[in-house]
Amino acid sequence: MKYIIKGHLCGHLCDDCSESLAGVEVLLYLPWQKERIVETTVADTKETFHLVEKEEKAARKSLLIATTKTDEKGDYQFTLDEKYGNTTSFDIDFVCGQVPGNKKSIKDPLQFHLTTIFAQWRLERETDNYYFQWRYCIAAKWWCHIRGRYFDAWVICGHLYVCGTKTPIPGVKVTAWDADFLTDDNLGSAVTDVHGHFRIDYTSRDFKQTFLSPWVNVETDKGNPFTFQSGPDVYFKYEYNSTEIQGETSANRRKNVGYCLCVELCLKELIVPPTGIPASFTKIGNNGNHFINELVASGNPNVIALATGKTPAGQAFFSCIKLRGSLTQKLNGAAMEYSFDTIETNGPGGPEIGVWKKVTASQMCEAEIGTFFTFTGDPMNPISITPYKVGNVSGGVDGSGWIAVPQASNFAPNVNGELLSLNTDTLNGGTVNMAGLVQGQSTTTVAALQQNRFFKIRMRKRAVGNAASEVPAGVSNPVAMFNTIYKSVPQFGSWMPQTSDERGVACIDIQEMIGGGGGTGCTPITDALHVNYTAANPNMGGVSLTLYGPGGPYSIQNVSPVGSVAETFGTATELHNPALVPVSTLDKCAYTVIFSVELKLTNGESQHGNIEDWLSFCKN
């Protein structure tokens, strides 16, 4: 039997920017200051983190019990002998000789103490080994200081958005410049990714250039050449398709920045899409997270699967979904308008059912399709941004479902942004009554199994009012949708029954507490516990039963596995691993069983939350 500690190390550069610590040595010690074990174990790691000096390193040398290295992802693992089975407290350090984004290494690597960890060993039933997991990301306050002071590693992490909309702008080359007295220094460039994120790494050598470089390197201040500052004065320029576009000047510089600079940038004057990009529907969901689903590019791993109609993560769609793409103000020189249609299909790859139907205003949620910008003349706020929204509440849609693109010269239509928000509940919404369902039994005892329905979505565009000019502008694969509400789902067992309305079923009961079996809500549990459970939804993910209480939590081992099924049900008779704490020896106390069901449903922005049921009981 082995004792395994698994972990991950990373360092924060900004709140939303971090890097894995790859190739660093991780050290595991027995606790050094035993009289302070409790104090150091409960302390925040930010308070215990420090550089280990030579004296401390020597004093702790005999306490070192294991070393390992992190892999390219920052993951590491210690495998300990059985003699450490009764040891729960360990000191953990790491040794750093180089940092990401910088080639410089130091002759004498630095050792840092992280904290004292308390290992709550858990038995891994498949391997018969005990394990504990501890992951930590060093606070930016410390990690940026380490990178800069010891390795001369400076970094800029940022996002580029459309001003006022937070819509990420991909594919833009961002160059950071240091404003200097004589010649501004180029600190480096990076191209924004699909989330609008970019990162630029540089060193002090990049901003300490002078006309005497490389013999004399020093940082000078733009406003006062005789004042020497320690950090650069940073501003940004932009390029798109090798063409320079609007950017900042040295007047916008951020003065004397530190080792880590975190910025949010935006293009204030959003120009119409570049030549060659027509108005088109290309995506469902937020362009800034992993639920993006491109609908047109063959072979793209983000394409909604033709075989399932779901996202690559196996999710169906529900509620209001944002239909995204690019708009232009003109079509063949005339003012443009556009609309969306839907048609149901017989399964993800089946034939179409009926005819295409226009999406009308009553089927729309609010969508922001562009912005109006106005030059104010105020140097503190030079441009005023006003979003333009369309939909059921906001208007902008005629009686036939057509949306006219504003023609004002100061209107910036979306590029890779929202075109329309479709309320999918208007396509396949409905309810199913679960009244009479008994926990542990199939939902088919009260109603038929519920299934996804599938719809294609397409965009049409034309010159305003000119039906003869109408042309297609993008069509999706059949998209899996689920909006059914399960009504009157039993909750909280048979002795304290309540009901809920959800997009799925998650309900449990404890046999020993069912009145018909001689139990009541106050009947104490002795040495047996049997949980009846039922879960249903055609898009289920993970299903778990967990017992919370002294020594826990404990995971139930024999819940029926969930694959591509619309429901699972049965009775769980083992609530935790007997090798840890047998049921018969559990403390006399209160316990809670929680049943959690993952619903793999997305609105394109985020996944639906888990649905749950729970029961508490007393152990006699």
TrEMBL record:
InterPro entries, per database record: Transthyretin-like_sf
Protein name, UniProt field: Uncharacterized protein
Entry superkingdom: Bacteria
